[in-house]
């Protein structure tokens, strides 16, 4: 059971704003969680630093740029003093980018950059975190994907968001590959819904609070039997 001496540990990427920040905000509200919030520029993450000042030692802020492989590899040194003894219960690969484009207009460099951030970064960070996850009690990897990564449903986006959807399809495949290679881990890929953030825009359907409350309810209740599932924030199954 989680306690002050053996809390439930979380690492959340892209924690400076949007869904990542809201994840951290809701997690630190519970004293049984110890949260590592990763962002690419901690000095500019004002809201996160303000939260840290209030969190009484249960929130650590570390620098990870998930599009920079050296930064990801170097993060092990930042994580070791925080998670070395406790291990990591939940790795949440949340950071992501979206550039609006279509299949016949996309710049291949943009496609590569999107895949780098949205799929290659999460793959490498999972490798870096594996020793910590092996020590953790829950051993959960959560990839924040999108219904846009589904091959079976176009989510009404039609031709739009080609690079983004390809990158999320790659992230979804990573989920299945990680599950197949490590049946001792619980690996999930989830869509947060259409959420009011810088990425989702003001027209989006969900407030970050509602989306994140749903995600946390789902991810904290999954078991090993759920590994490899593709779920919405409210627990609904998404067709691959
Ligand atoms: P935002 O654009 O609001 O925030 C993106 C976050 O990712 C920021 O914290 C940003 O940091 C961070 N980030 C981007 N690139 C990097 C990088 N290279 N290294 C580290 N951090 C990075 O997006 P959302 O909060 O809406 O999205 C979060 C996740 O949810 C994404 O994976 C997205 O694809 C997914 N999603 C969102 C939906 C929505 O409707 N909002 C719908 C479906 C999926 P910085 O402040 O430094 O730029």
UniProtKB/TrEMBL annotation:
Segments traversing the membrane: none
Organism name: Pycnoporus cinnabarinus (Cinnabar-red polypore)
Protein name per the record: Uncharacterized protein
UniProt-listed Pfam families: adh_short
GO molecular function per UniProt: oxidoreductase activity, acting on the CH-OH group of donors, NAD or NADP as acceptor
């Amino acid at each position: 059971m989680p306690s002050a001496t053996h809390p439930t540990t979380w690492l959340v990427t892209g924690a400076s704003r949007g869904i990542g920040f809201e994840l951290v905000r809701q997690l630190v509200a519970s004293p049984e969680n110890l949260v590592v919030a990763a962002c690419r520029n901690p000095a500019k993450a004002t809201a996160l630093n303000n939260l840290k000042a209030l969190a009484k030692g249960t929130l650590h802020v570390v620098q990870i740029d998930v599009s920079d492989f050296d930064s990801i590899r170097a993060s092990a040194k930042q994580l070791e003093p925080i998670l070395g003894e406790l291990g990591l219960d939940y790795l949440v690969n949340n950071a992501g980018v979206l550039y609006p484009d279509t299949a016949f207009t996309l710049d291949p460099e943009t496609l590569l950059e999107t895949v780098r951030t949205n799929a290659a970064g999460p793959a490498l960070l999972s490798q870096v975190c594996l020793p910590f996850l092996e020590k953790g009690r829950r051993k959960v990897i959560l990839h924040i994907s999108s219904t846009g990564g589904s091959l079976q449903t176009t989510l009404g986006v039609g031709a739009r968001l080609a690079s983004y959807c390809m990158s999320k399809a790659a992230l979804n495949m990573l989920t299945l590959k990680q599950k197949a290679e490590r049946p001792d881990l619980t690996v999930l890929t989830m869509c947060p819904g259409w959420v009011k953030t810088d990425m989702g825009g003001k027209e989006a359907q969900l407030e970050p609070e509602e989306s994140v409350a749903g995600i946390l309810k789902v991810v904290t209740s999954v078991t090993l039997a759920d590994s490899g599932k593709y779920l919405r924030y409210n627990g609904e199954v998404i067709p691959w």
